[in-house]
Amino acid sequence: MNANGNMQPYTIYLGADDARMMGFESSARAQGLAIKRLDLAGLSDNAALADYLAREFEFPHETRGLDAVIDMVSDLEWLKNKHGYLVIVRGRTAMPSVLDALASLLPNIIDRWRTQGMPFVIVIDVASERLERTLHAANRLMKASGSLPWAQPGTGAVDVLVLGSREAEVDG
After folding, report:
1. 34: exposed, middle or buried (Cβ count in 10 Å: 0-12, 13-18, 19+)
2. What is the pTM of this model?
3. 124 φ, ψ to 5°?
4. Cα angle vertex 6, ends 103, 71, to 5°?
């Protein structure tokens, strides 16, 4: 959230405690955003993550792999929400490789929502240097993609904000 307590669309927030998450949820409800809650505990690898996300986002058909997750979570028309989405991720007890895999997808997914003009916000309870590096690397790829001559206008890095005592913008 920004200094006014408003949630910024197309943003990844890191390090949200329970009170901040409740604030995000309240703001999302006021804006009509659908709220999805993810808990990555117990997921062992990328295949388990892809299967979990397919269930949680109620994919309308069978998919395989994380590339399919990007495509499906970038759409969600079957959920019939016209106001946008807030995704809350519990990752404190997740395997680091699973959290990294999810984080590497997020800038691409958020960028796709941004090009549609539909708010999409991610809030993660973890803020670590490893997670920040993963998001920074994914954002570098998005920035490079946006500079290609055939890129959709507006394609590029997304905002990543670290909450808490060391509130800062990672990149974006």
Report:
1. middle
2. 0.91
3. -120, 135
4. 35
